[in-house]
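The data layer described in this paper is built around a simple, fixed record for each protein. Such a record has a labelled line for the sequence and another for the backbone structure tokens. For reference, a complete record is included directly beneath this paragraph.
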Amino acid sequence: MKTKLVSYEIDLANPPPLTETQKTELKARAAMPDEAIDDGDIPPLTEAFWANAVRNPFYRPVKTSTTVRIDADVLAWLRAPGRGYQTRINAILRREMMAALKKG
């Protein structure tokens, strides 16, 4: 038995217009008071949940190429452990950025 596979591509920058039925449903939901919304199937997010939360393991920040002037001794120290000195530079800068954001 053959199955027919249908795929669609959606341009998120230019989504298709909503149908009248969709518009009506959205208006009805927007008019609902918060108390009328059934959220009984959503588990509470406790402090324990957030203590064990991890960043999406598939998250990859966008990399950009740049030129940076670094003191020769600093560069030698970064290269001393072997390959990956640029990754080490990024890790050090990210650690400092996160610390500064927590202070700010």
